[in-house]
Design a protein that fits this description.
The protein is of the alpha/beta class and about 210 residues long. The chain has five helices and four strands; from the N terminus they run αβαβαβαβα. Helix 3 crosses helix 4. The two termini are about 35 Å apart.
Length: about 210
Amino acid sequence: MSIGSLFSSPQFTVRISPASESGPNPNPSLNFSNLQRGPSRTRNLSIGTGNGGLGQTNPHGVGDRDGVIIVDHGSRRKESNLMLNEFVDMFRERTGYAIVEPAHMELAEPSIQDAFNSCVEQGANRVIVSPFFLLPGRHWNKDIPSLTAEAAKEHPGVSYMVTAPLGLHPLLVDVMNDRINHCLSHVAGDAAECAVCVGTGKCQLH
C-alpha cells in the first residue's frame, strides 16, 4: 500500500496541523529513558508536521464520552501481553483520557470485544480503536475492522472508528534512535537493560 493511498483510505481521516512558525523543534532528540509518567496538561493531541502534535489542542479530539482501545497483535508470551497493559497505563496518565482499555487481536485476553464492552460499561458512546502496529497490513486493513464491527453489534447507538497505525510519524525516529543509543550504552557497560530487554540478556554484541 502506498503512502498516498494510506492517507486517502475511507476508514480514517488524518488531520494535519500546520508546522510551527517559530522555527525548528528545539528538542529534536527526545530522551525516552528519562521520560516521567504523569498527567498531561492537555487533554487533546493531534498530528502535526512541526512537533509531532504534542501539546497542540484539537477541538475534534477525544472527549469524556469517548473510549479508546489500544490493540496489539497478542502473544502466547505473557510478558509481552503485560507490556501492553503498562503502555496503556502510561498512555492514560499522559493524555488524561478517562476511558482507555487494552486489547489483543488474538491469542490473549482481553479481546477487542472485551475492551469494547468495558468502554461502553464506563459510559462511552463512541469508541476509538487505535492499532498498536507500526505499518498498515492485513490486520489493520481487515482483521481489526472486522473484529471491531462484530463487537459493535452488541451496542447499537455506539459509534466507532479504527484509526491509522503508528506509520511514518516523526517522533518514531526519536524513539528508534533512543533505543539504538541506549542498547549501545548497555553493551558498553554504561546503562542497565531497558524495560523491554530486562532479564532476557538479548541486548549484547555478538
